[in-house]
Amino acid sequence: MSEPEWAPLTGFRVAVTSARRADELAALLRRRGASVTGAAAIEMVPLPDDDELRQHTHALIDEPPDIVVATTGIGLRGWMAAADGWGMATELTAALGRARIVSRGPKATGALRAAGLPEEWSPESESSREVLHYLLEGGIAGARIAVQLHGATDDWDPFPEFLDELRSAGAYVVPIRVYRWHPAPRNGEFDQLVAGIAEEKFDAVSFTSAPAVASVLMRATEMGLEAAVLSALRTSVHAMCVGPVTARPLVRLGVPTSAPERMRLGALARHITDELPLLQSRTIRVAGHLLEIRGTCVLVDGAVRSMSPAAMATMRALAHRPGAVVSRTDLLRALPGSGTDTHAVETAVLRLRSALGDKKMVATVVKRGYRLPVDEACAS
Question: Which Gene3D superfamilies does this entry report, sorted A to Z (predicted)?
Fold first, then answer.
């Protein structure tokens, strides 16, 4: 048997919002056939220039914490490197070394040990909820707790419930915001990506950090597109997240998310490869042919048939209710733009038939419209 001419993600459009390793993720997805649009959702504040982090570091040296919570390896290493650049590394290590240290997972644990700061405890699950339970069980009323956070702004923290519950239990919390970020500049590629989500121009959008999620939602609000973006993410544009922490801001808003079992970039690419065809393609049997409808193309009996935007929109409208008649007026509404001439429908149908390769796959119903003459419909 000959190899198929298509890859697992052929015909699917994926938006990549990563600021770090975006090219790597895009390359993995393109290798699997996806059409990728990338625009970094955030810009990081350079650590040597982060006056807030420097001030908090000074404060912890002057008044060491009772408990330290390390949440990410890269964040802890960045903090120690910044302290070294400010000439404070020895004093900071000594101050933190007097505290009880709790680590959220193996990466944070590795960074702690590399800095000479052995952890008291760490959950196997990398769950902040388990860390919280551990601290609450031991009693933290009156304790001064430094929590290293990765990816935050002055108005947004990645673990708001975690910090609030520590405070509710009587602790004095000192957030250490390492790698603070700003949203990407206005009127650039990121704005176009957000608008593309609102207009359902993608089949999936990938997120590798909670700050990227927050930035998309904030920019959508600024652009007056919040409702459209949320509607798209709840329906036709699938949110693919690297892990549960990244997904949390979307879950709170009722947006369905999916994530790989391992919180790694390669695992996310494989997860998108495995899941997106199941979520976003539809298979139906029409006029003796097997059609698989994807984001920008249709596979006809396993062969890729490229489609113009108008032909693809017509295909989706007809496939929404396979076998049912769709009027010219309804098809006109489905076409890109806001045309009023039903001749555009006839042109789109003609191009669709030509692209499919068998005109019998789109039947004309005189004076009523068009339909797909379905043999057997099956969702996939």
Answer: 3.40.50.10090, Winged helix-like DNA-binding domain superfamily/Winged helix DNA-binding domain
pLDDT digits (tens, 9 = 90+) for 253-273: 999 999 998 888 999 999 999
Rounded to the nearest angstrom, the gap between the alpha carbon of residue 376 and the centroid of all alpha carbons in its chain is: 35
Structure token digits, residue 59: 């404060």
Closest CA to 47 of 102, 99, 86: 86
Query: SS3 string of 287-348?
Result: CCEEEEECCCEEEECCEEEECCHHHHHHHHHHHHCCCCCECHHHHHHHCCCCCCCCHHHHHH
Amino acid 215: pLDDT:
93
Residue 86, amino acid: W
pLDDT of residue 379: 40
Q: Which residue do the tokens 């309804």 mark?
A: 330
Burial of 235 from C-beta contacts in 10 A (0-12 / 13-18 / 19+): exposed
- Say what percent of the chain tops pLDDT 90: 77
**Chain mean position to CA 84:** 34
Q: Which three-class secondary structure state does DSSP give residue 171?
A: coil
Q: CA–CA separation, 181 vs 212, rounded Å?
A: 10
DSSP secondary structure letter of residue 48: G
Residues 6+ apart with CB under 8 A from 64: 95, 96, 98, 99
The token duo for 283 is 């298979």
**Lowest mean pLDDT: which of 54-68, 139-153, 284-298?**
139-153
Burial class (CB in 10 A: 0-12, 13-18, 19+), 341: exposed
CA separation for the pair 4, 121 (Å, rounded):
51
The structural domains of the chain, ordered by start, are 13-44+184-280 (3.40.50.10090), 47-179 (3.40.50.10090), 282-378 (1.10.10.10)
